[in-house]
Amino acid sequence: MMIQAKRVYEPPEPADGYRVLVDRLWPRGLTKEQARLDEWAKEIAPSNELRKWFHADRTKWAEFKRKYRAELKEHREPLGRLAARAKQGTVTLLYAATDPERNHAIILTDILSQLVTD
After folding, report:
1. pLDDT for 44-90, tens place per residue?
2. Segments forming the whole domain that contains residue 92
3. Tens digit of each residue's pLDDT (9 = 90 or more) over 90-107
4. Residues contacting 91, CB < 8 A, separation 6+
5. Rounded CA Rg of the chain
6. How many domains would you assign to the chain?
């Protein structure tokens, strides 16, 4: 069992397992063939309002995490489905953000890892 996050622009690898795009918007300049997705989980991406708010001021990371976790409470079913998938094998959460340490996929990775071990 493994849940990992990876930029969608990185080349797909067999070790990625089940590939899930977790952005609300399609990544610029990327075709569906290049992305090689198994699923596009728009519903667990940050809302447009939250995404724009954080993009305007990236110093609000702690507040973004809190608000995003609150939004995810409304999406237990898709989170549970991905956690169940992760119990079967690797799940790679794909994101387009440029910051590998401060993006919503990192938060999702933590949440899903908790669900898998509960």
Report:
1. 999 999 999 998 888 999 999 999 999 999 999 999 999 999 999 99
2. 3-117
3. 999 999 999 999 999 999
4. 2, 3, 4, 17, 18, 20, 82, 85, 112
5. 14
6. 1
